[in-house]
Design brief:
By secondary structure, this protein is α+β, with helices and mostly antiparallel strands. It is built from 14 helices and 29 strands. Strand 18 and strand 19 form a beta hairpin.
Length: 568
């Protein structure tokens, strides 16, 4: 899972890193993190102290804020008086309120009970989230303990200033309670870090501390960090990520600056990643024994999120960020030699099958956005839809310009506008595409995509290397409400005509175990196994989570075309 907020934050940081002399320097913000690991993860915590230089707040104004949940992931919350503040006049009374909810979640805001005097210091203890084999896979925002280490995103445990900034940020680590050799890493650097950025940067970035391992051991610009030894070679993985990051940086015309990758082990089945400021974190399930090749698509997708972004509401623009990450994670992996042609074709067909078999494929963008965070399958709508639409756009641009231009030119211009502080929204996209293929055609293609219309791969795009073939697929159909797999795990909304019901599942069954769900979503013949509790006993139920066949398309390689003649 990913967030389009990341790239907006990166653009803000670039725009404000060098304030003018007339404005004066931004106020200081000093953040001190003191991790305290424990033998039992639930007993460990991170002591947080944040000093804000003279915020000059009037009574009732907001001091700090933290999401209670963000895209379904709970934060540390700090209920009651867990969060304290003081200033030059002594203890600072605080009140708590919830901000209006958004599709992504609800933020809690702490406001001051009197006018502030001088600097304000905020303190609290961040405890890691408790996760088990029954925890749902999701965006990697929560703070977790892994062995003697802590890893997580700031929006899972750092209450950030309500004032947007910019701030002169100084981050320090206190390792006195940690094992010898502990290191502290932030997305923006290792050890003590000083930078200028908005309040959001503190939330939408990653933090890790403990006896972390690192690859390479000494590189001030790039690093892969982890605690538990994974079932794959982290050095091979790290070197591959670094090379791909450098290739993608060059493509987007930027120097390969600082970049950090964090990985953590999940107790539940599944992998996933989330990209934030100049970094991403991914999780894996060690018993599933993922390989470096298995992780290639996930990692390249997360790296690609560093650049293409579109301003606007997430539900309106997710097709762009996710579609571009899908498009360029594969295209640039091919162009840089990171993957071969057979893997390209395999990946394209997997993505096409996922798009056509998605039960929410026909929803409009706004309709899909409403259920993004209630069903993981709905979350994937922008991935397939955006990618397929960008394939069509690429083909249309190449055809209209006789091959002189392509999707690359438009996406690079959108990125240039973003970095330059210019508008980079939907209207800009349509204008740039329309200048190449015609305004009416550009608008018609876009409206068809937004409305949930069926998108068919353009035959001419990768010809003669690949040809488009019709390959009907069956819609993914769990057969009962996806919410049944959440914490209570009680089967609700069972469709009596579904394969699950035919296999013996009953309304009200308690689900004790779920096996192979993620794999089943990726393959047409993958089955799901549920261990359910019913009437004091346990039963194992296996079924194929598929419904009716639908019109679908994929690609087949032309054996007469040499690989060297193929382009993507």
């Amino acid at each position: 899972m990913k967030t389009t907020l990341l790239c907006a934050i990166a653009a803000i940081a670039i725009a404000i890193t060098s304030p003018s002399a007339a404005q004066g320097p931004p106020p200081r913000l000093e953040l001190k993190l003191a991790p305290h690991p424990a033998a039992t993860p639930d007993e460990g915590y991170i002591a947080v102290e944040m000093r804000m230089e003279a915020p000059r707040l009037a009574k009732g104004e907001g001091l700090v804020r933290l999401p209670l949940t963000l895209v379904g992931i709970p934060s540390a919350r700090y209920d009651g008086e867990a969060l304290q503040a003081r200033d030059d006049a002594g203890p600072l009374p605080l009140t708590q309120d919830e901000e209006p909810p958004t599709p992504q979640g609800v933020y809690r805001r702490w406001s001051v009970g009197r006018a502030t005097r001088g600097d304000v210091i905020v303190t609290y203890r961040a405890t890691p989230r408790h996760v088990t084999a029954a925890t749902n896979n999701g965006p990697l925002f929560d703070l977790r303990a892994e062995g003697q280490a802590f890893l997580g995103a700031g929006n899972g445990f750092i209450a950030t200033p309500v004032a947007p900034g910019p701030w002169r940020i100084r981050l320090e680590w206190d390792h006195s309670a940690e094992p010898a050799g502990a290191r502290g890493v932030w997305s923006m650097g290792e050890g003590t870090v000083e930078t200028v950025g908005p309040s959001q940067l503190l939330g939408f970035s990653y933090y890790a501390s403990g006896p972390l391992k690192r690859y390479p051991e000494a590189d001030p610009h790039f690093g892969l960090f982890w605690m538990s030894d994974p079932p794959f070679d982290p050095q091979v993985l790290g070197e591959g990520v670094r090379k791909l990051y450098e290739a993608m940086s060059a493509f987007f015309g930027e120097a390969a600056g600082q970049y950090r990758v964090f990985m953590r082990s999940n107790p539940y089945v599944g992998t996933g990643g989330t990209g934030l400021a100049r970094s991403f974190m991914f999780g894996y399930h060690a018993p599933s024994e993922p390989t470096v090749d298995d992780l290639q698509g996930l990692l390249s997708h997360e790296i690609a999120h560093t650049w293409p972004s579109m301003e606007g509401e997430h539900g309106d623009t997710a097709w762009y960020s996710e579609g571009n990450a899908e498009f360029y994670s594969l295209a640039l992996s091919w162009r840089s030699g990171a993957v071969g042609l057979d893997r390209v074709v395999e990946t394209m067909n997997e993505r096409a099958d996922a798009y056509y078999s998605n039960p929410y494929r026909g929803l409009t963008n706004p309709e899909a956005a409403k259920i993004f965070w209630t069903d993981p399958v709905a979350q994937t709508v922008p991935y397939g839809r955006g990618w397929m639409y960008l394939l069509q756009t690429d083909a249309a641009i190449r055809a209209a310009t006789d091959g002189a231009e392509s999707l690359d030119d438009v996406v690079k211009e959108m990125r240039r506008r973003q970095v330059a502080g210019e508008s980079y929204g939907i209207a800009d996209w349509l204008r740039l595409v329309g200048a190449r293929i015609g305004e009416e055609e550009a608008k018609a293609m876009y409206d068809h995509m937004v409305s949930g219309g069926l998108l068919i791969p353009p035959e001419e795009l990768y010809a003669p290397c690949l040809k488009v073939v019709k390959r009907p697929v069956r819609v993914f159909e769990l057969g009962f409400a996806r919410a049944s797999l959440n914490d209570e795990r009680i089967v609700r909304g069972l469709d009596p005509a579904s394969e699950a019901a035919k296999a013996g599942l009953r309304e009200g069954d308690r689900i004790a175990e779920v096996k192979d769900l993620n794999t089943a979503r990726k393959t047409q013949d993958g089955t799901v196994t549920l261990v359910v509790e019913r009437e004091g006993g346990r039963q194992t139920i296996t079924f194929l989570p598929r419904g009716a066949a639908v019109e679908a398309y994929g690609w087949a390689r032309d054996p007469a075309t040499p690989e060297s003649a193929c382009r993507f």
